[in-house]
Design goal:
Belongs to the sigma-70 factor family. ECF subfamily. Pfam families: Sigma70_r2 (PF04542), Sigma70_r4 (PF04545). This is RNA polymerase sigma-70 factor (ECF subfamily). This protein is an all-alpha fold. It has two domains: about 100 residues; about 55 residues, Winged helix-like DNA-binding domain superfamily/Winged helix DNA-binding domain (Arc Repressor Mutant, subunit A). Helices cover about 75% and strands about 0% of the residues. The chain is built from seven helices and no strands. The protein is globular.
């Protein structure tokens, strides 16, 4: 196996399953998802020496761009069904952006300490008040506030490292 084949194999091994899940959640077509993942890995492999920051976030942004390009190409072709006439082209891009943001945030949250992640999930995803989070996590409300403050700071740093624009 050549060095290039090793790099491509490593990208598939380390990021392929997550990338495919992301693409599949946007397009719901397994064959199209495989095509997008393959094209993404190829583009990233070609740009590998120039990539700065997180390879995974670069992969997801590249996949997002490929999906948007594919969506735009499909919009330029004649429509196959009347149902597609109802679709707004911006909806496809917004859905892909939303999915990308969700995946990147999930990755960033996983890089936080368990204590920080628990507090952020309780406050921002489960929509608990500080008091409710305190009871749920069995910690004082002052600790909830303190952990939330430091968790947000850590999350910002992680997102900056990943190259995510806020």
């Amino acid at each position: 196996m050549s060095l290039d084949e090793d790099v491509v194999a490593a990208i598939y091994r380390d990021h392929g399953p997550a990338l495919r899940r992301f693409v599949l959640s946007a397009c719901r077509d397994p064959q199209l998802a495989d095509d997008v993942v393959q094209e993404t890995v190829l583009r990233v492999w070609q740009q590998a020496p120039h990539i700065t920051g997180s390879l995974r976030s670069y992969l997801f942004r590249t996949a997002r761009n490929i999906m948007i390009d594919n969506y735009r190409k499909a919009q330029r072709r004649p429509r196959e069904t009347a149902d597609r006439d109802l679709a707004d082209p911006a909806d496809g891009e917004e859905r892909v952006d939303e999915l990308l943001n969700r995946v990147l945030m999930e990755e960033a949250l996983l890089r936080l300490s368990a204590e920080h992640r628990e507090v952020l999930v309780a406050l921002h995803y489960r929509r608990f008040t500080v008091q409710e989070a305190s009871v749920s996590l069995n910690i004082p409300s002052g600790t909830v506030k303190s952990r939330a403050f430091y968790a947000v700071r850590a999350l910002r740093t992680i997102l900056d490292e990943m190259g995510v624009q806020r």
